[in-house]
Amino acid sequence: MFPDRPGTYVLVLRLSSPVAITVGQLGCFEFPAGWYAYAGSAQGPGGLGARLSRHVRSPKTLHWHIDYLRAHAAPVEIWHGGGGEKRECAWADSLSRLPAASLPVPCFGSSDCRCPTHLVHFAAPPDAAVFSDLVGERASAVTLPCGSIAGSG
Predict the structure, then answer these.
(1) What pLDDT digit, counting tens, does each position of 65-106 carry?
(2) Which DSSP string corresponds to 32-83?
């Protein structure tokens, strides 16, 4: 479904009701209902294909911060772009500049950089085209089939 090359991605999730989640050693946070956009990169073996397949699969071992939210929220869309350079920080910054963006969990997904967070919350679904304009590159959008993801919250 996804290319087996390195790249950067945004995982868009829908959380149907508010929930308190303990995110590993980061702590416990209240996650409001709505849409979440998480910026990440896939530079290792299998590239985007391996990383994104893992993100949509459920259940799984909780390893990354996003896994803890993913256990409660359904993946609805993935935006991705290729390339070996790590652009997730720029993508996270662009997400935070989208209309009506909020940053509910500091340091989420950004423990290896200086970004405030790589997770952005929206009351309504974020727009991939507006995001592509902000980030200055085309991100391919893949809508995930509703109800086809096991354990999707």
Answers:
(1) 999 999 999 999 999 998 888 899 999 999 999 999 999 999
(2) -SEEEEEEEEE-STTHHHHHHHHHH--S----SHHHHHHTTSEEEEEEEEE-
In total, how many domains does the chain have? 1
Contacts of 36 (CB under 8 A, 6+ apart): 12, 13, 14, 15, 69, 73, 119, 120, 121, 122
In a domain, 133, yes or no: yes
Residue holding tokens 């308190």?
20
**In terms of residue numbers, what domain contains 20?**
7-143
Q: Residue 62 and residue 52: Cα distance in Å, rounded?
A: 15
Domain membership of residue 2 (yes or no) is: no
Q: pTM for this one?
A: 0.92
Q: How far apart are CA 81 and CA 93, in angstroms?
A: 16
For 13-54, the pLDDT digits (tens) are 999 999 999 999 999 999 999 999 999 999 989 999 999 999
H/E stretch holding 128 reads: helix 128-135
Could you give the CA distance from residue 54 to residue 51 in angstroms, rounded to a whole number?
Answer: 5
As a whole number of angstroms, the distance between CA 142 and CA 63 comes to 24
Residue 96 within a domain: yes
Here the tokens at position 54 are 């893992």
